[in-house]
Design a protein that fits this description.
The structure is a single chain. The protein has 140 residues and is of the alpha/beta class. The chain has helices at residues 2-13, 37-40, 47-55, 74-83, 100-105, 116-128, 130-136; strands at residues 20-25, 28-34, 64-68, 87-90, 109-112. The chain contains seven helices and five strands; from the N terminus they run H-E-E-H-H-E-H-E-H-E-H-H. It has a five-stranded mixed sheet.
Length: 140
């Protein structure tokens, strides 16, 4: 989970939301990204979406694993389902429950590492930036 956290911190230093993601095939990183909604003024560029965009056209996704610092939302979970990603590993879901059940209902194995240190870091960020965080998750 080191690279995803690097991506998340990169997004934060750019003035964005600290969520990072990495796509791995076998043991090789083939895509990495972070939430760029603020930086690009584009509501679609969540970390997982950015990661998939950076990976580009790779053919089949069936033998890949998607890592994220936070449980994916329905947008990102939908992308994982659409492309046939079989496994998603997240650092934590304490701060956002996301779409775990949706992914599991579509055959994706979801592993929540429950990284308490990362959850505390991200939770603090959410408390310090409630308007931005609520905008990201579609809440008022």
């Amino acid at each position: 989970m080191r690279v995803e956290k690097e991506e998340a911190r990169k997004g934060m230093t750019e003035g964005g939301i600290p969520i990072g993601s990495v796509l791995v095939r076998n043991t090789t990183i083939i895509g990495r990204g972070h939430n760029r909604r603020v930086q690009q003024e584009n509501p679609m560029i969540h970390a997982e979406i950015d990661c998939l965009m950076q990976a580009g056209r790779i053919g089949s996704y069936g033998n890949t694993v998607l890592y994220s610092t936070l449980m994916p939302c329905f947008l990102c979970a939908g992308a994982a389902v659409q492309f046939g990603i079989k496994k998603v590993i997240v650092a934590e879901s304490r701060n956002f429950l996301g779409a775990r059940a949706f992914m599991e209902e579509h055959g994706i194995e979801v592993v929540d590492l429950d990284d308490r240190e990362w959850a505390a870091f991200f939770g603090k960020w959410c408390r310090e930036h409630p308007k931005l965080w609520n905008e990201d998750i579609g809440e008022d």
